[in-house]
UniProtKB/TrEMBL annotation:
It comes from Leeuwenhoekiella aequorea. This is DUF4295 domain-containing protein. It comes from the Bacteria. It holds the Pfam family DUF4295.
Amino acid sequence: MAKKSVATLQTGSKRLTKAIKMVKSPKTGAYTFVEAVMAPEAVGEFLDKK
């Protein structure tokens, strides 16, 4: 599984990170992109999840 693009976003006093990972569909075999904006500490957990 290919993954990860991470960008750091700063809005006011909050520090957020946008993570994008490629997920392969088990039915069709096509890849889709899953995006999420979260705290920098949660990025590793997000990328490790299937």
